[in-house]
Design brief:
260 residues, mainly alpha, 3-stranded antiparallel beta sheet, two-stranded antiparallel ribbon, 13 helices, 7% strand, DUF4835 family protein, signal
Length: 260
């Protein structure tokens, strides 16, 4: 497999250095594993990292991707755009562009930082999703496509997640990339039927964070996950009280935006 690269490399290194320096003070807990999760935690981390594969023209899209991959240099490059040619991208249907964007972020990154894995992750609510660790990032062209077609992209995500009863990391990341506060009722409903997926709570938290809500920024949860002494791996223990706060605050934010 080819190494993958982006301007995010420096960002990843920065995150890693900050993480090493603050993990104990931020969480006041050293109950973590480095490099690999504990065997009993690996399945939940795999669940958090799992992406959803849209069904639209998958073979056609994979053919275009494979053709492009054959032309890439053997060595990893920083800030490398591995996207298919514009002529191919522009002729894709809306459904095909969705499949392409969800399964093939175009910017490759060589990420070498050692990762930290929190023990018992299924009992935690994390402040961030894991997308940054995948070593690939959406290009400006892909981000533009999602933002310009937000309603359609959200429809695809809602319908496909409903059919499979799963919402992959890429779908959650797309919602955040589009700052799709409109998806909050769907996210709440989906979570209430899939409570194992606590990264949906994380997605709601990040939508609230993007909303710059003063009450939320003054909350204990915000300070715990996004305060000055936190890092990319910051987390808090799951509890029904925390769950209720996140859902009620997100619903109130949605209602406020709807009334604007």
């Amino acid at each position: 497999m080819r190494k993958k690269a982006s301007s995010a490399v420096g960002f990843l290194v920065f995150l890693y250095l900050g993480l090493v320096g603050t993990v104990v003070s931020a969480q006041e807990n050293t109950d973590v594993a480095w490099g690999d999760p504990r065997p009993q935690d690996s399945s939940y981390y795999a669940f958090r990292e799992k992406n959803s594969i849209p069904p639209f023209s998958t073979k056609k899209i994979q053919f275009l991707i494979d053709k492009r991959l054959k032309t890439l240099p053997d060595e990893a490059l920083t800030d490398y755009d591995a996207g298919i040619p514009a002529r191919d991208f522009n002729t894709l249907t809306a459904e095909e562009k969705f499949t392409y964007t969800m399964i093939y972020p175009e910017i490759f990154s060589q990420a070498c930082a050692e990762r930290m894995f929190v023990n018992d992750p299924q009992k935690k609510i994390f402040g961030q999703l894991l997308f940054v660790y995948n070593g690939v990032f959406w290009s400006e062209r892909q981000i533009s496509y999602m933002k310009k077609n937000k309603a359609q992209v959200l429809t695809f995500i809602r319908e496909l997640s409903g059919k499979t009863n799963e919402m992959g990391l890429n779908y959650k990341s797309a919602i955040l990339e589009m700052n799709a506060w409109e998806s909050i009722p769907f996210l709440i409903d989906f979570y209430q039927n899939n409570r194992r997926d606590k990264d949906i709570l994380t997605t709601l938290l990040l939508l609230l964070k993007k909303g710059e809500l003063s009450d939320f920024k003054q909350s204990k949860i915000y300070h715990k996950l996004y305060g000055p002494d936190t890092n990319y791996e910051s987390w808090m223990d799951f509890s029904e009280a925390n769950e209720q706060y996140i859902i009620e605050t997100a619903q109130a934010y949605y209602n406020k935006r709807q009334g604007e």
